[in-house]
Amino acid sequence: MFDLLLIAGAWLVYGALHSWLASGHTKAWVARRWPRFVPAYRLAYNGLAILLLIPPLALTLSQPGEALWNWPVWVSWPAAVLAIAGFVWSLRWYNMGEFMGLRQWRRHDGREHEGFVISPLHRYVRHPWYSLGLLLLWTRDLNAAWLTTALAVTLYLAIGSRLEERKLVAQYGEAYREYMRRVPALLPWPGRHLSPDEAQALQQAAHRDG
Questions:
Q1: pLDDT exceeds 60 at position 184
Q2: Nearest 5°: phi and psi at 26?
Q3: Up-side HSE of residue 82: CA atoms within 13 Å toward CB?
Q4: Which one of 16, 24, 149, 200 is separated from 9 by 20 to 30 angstroms, measured CA to CA?
Q5: How confident is the model at residue 117 (pLDDT cuts 50, 70, 90)?
Q6: Which CATH code is given to the segment(s) 2-209?
Q7: First vs last Cα of the chain: how many Å apart?
Q8: CA 100: distance to chain centroid?
């Protein structure tokens, strides 16, 4: 039991640090004290996010244990392929240089210019990468350690996505609020999606408001 609490605690610390570093208040605090570091902030943030994954993942992997649930191969493999393929396919709608922070660093400008883009996957869920990650996570064989990790990560993504959307509402106003009303956050739901025309109209409205 202690090992499972340690895993849950490690993910809790990771989530708290990740959200704190992503907050506007933290970025503003860094900008006031180390203005020259601002262009590299997004790049450092992403690198640190990857490094901070090592402790909770290592703790999870150190507890092999007996599987509590085994998915049949015809479920787990197609789910993994679908998640990875969906992630790769969706990259075409992201400016990866901007997302990773390379463009900000190269142009010595900490401002982010990604804009509000509703990709085909964004028409069905507001956070498709989170959804694909959850699909990959929950369709693997689950022992006690991996179940703890799945629950902790799911909780973090549910909370973290809401914190992230506060900034998006502040930036894009009523257009993003309408998007939140029309499209679910993480799980697709029948009848709650946007047509291509509706997505384009919301994008245009968001750019006017932003």
A1: yes
A2: -65, -45
A3: 15
A4: 24
A5: confident
A6: 1.20.120
A7: 48
A8: 13
For residues 135 and 71, the answer to whether their CB atoms sit within 8 Å is: no
Cβ-proximal residues to 193 (8 Å cutoff; 6+ apart), any chain: 123, 124, 182, 183
Return the residue matching tokens 């959307």: 165
Round to whole Å and give the CA distance between 72 and 58. 26
Between CA 15 and CA 155 the distance in angstroms is: 10
DSSP 8-state secondary structure symbol assigned to residue 72: -
Two tokens at 124?
A: 């069905």
Distances (CA, A) of 85 to 45, 60, 81, 190: 26, 25, 6, 22
Residues 6+ apart with CB under 8 A from 98: 104, 112, 113, 114
Question: Given pLDDT bands bounded at 50, 70 and 90, which one contains residue 113?
Answer: low
> How is residue 20 written in tokens?
């704190």
Dist CA 138 CA 154 (whole Å) = 9
- Give the dihedral of Cα atoms 104, 107, 108, 114; nearest 10 deg: -30
Structure-token pair, residue 100? 């990773």
Domain ranges of the chain: 2-209
